[in-house]
Design brief:
CATH architecture: Orthogonal Bundle
Largest sheet: 4 strands, mixed
Number of domains: 1
Structural class: alpha+beta
Distance between the termini: 29 Å
Number of helices: 5
CATH topology: Arc Repressor Mutant, subunit A
Shape: globular
Radius of gyration: 15 Å
CATH class: Mainly Alpha
Number of strands: 4
Helix content: 40-55%
Order of helices and strands: HEEEHEHHH
Strand content: 5-15%
Strand order of the largest sheet: 1-3-2-4
Length: 141
């Protein structure tokens, strides 16, 4: 388990969200969540392990957003700025940026390192830049 995954697990716990980690799924099986049951199933066998933290943040975001559909499966591709998936991706970035930036001087942050480290989809680069900027404004670094 990575440090950011532990951080995200704490976010989930603080919002009464249950996370089930399993290694019983095929590498191509995406994680999913149930809004109604405030539960997430994460696939430890995912074929892109570096993406798992972003996926977890994405699924947490679906629940925090109270998305209309009960069952949501991870889908990181661009589907329009008003789509449920895009909003979950944006929420994932918002959840992850404070962890990444905490205690790091603004001058040393590289948004592309963040995106590469967690396999954040490239179409979210503006969101990542905006959230990093907002982090440093609100924390007055």
């Amino acid at each position: 388990m990575t440090e950011i995954s532990s951080y995200l697990e704490q976010v989930a716990f603080d919002h009464n969200i249950n996370i089930v980690w399993t290694d019983k799924l095929a590498p191509e099986t995406p994680p999913g969540c149930s809004i109604r049951y405030r539960s997430i199933v994460m696939n430890l066998n995912w074929h892109h392990p570096a993406e798992i933290s972003f996926q977890l943040a994405h699924e947490i975001s679906h629940i925090l957003n109270g998305d209309e559909t009960d069952i949501c499966f991870y889908h990181a591709t661009f589907t329009g700025k008003h789509s449920v998936e895009y909003k979950a991706n944006t929420g994932a970035v918002k959840l992850m940026v404070p962890f990444y930036c905490q205690g790091v001087p603004k001058e040393t942050i590289n948004v592309y390192d963040f995106m590469e480290s967690y396999e954040v989809p490239s179409h979210l680069d503006n969101i990542v830049r905006e959230e990093v900027h907002n982090y440093y404004i609100s924390n007055r670094y």
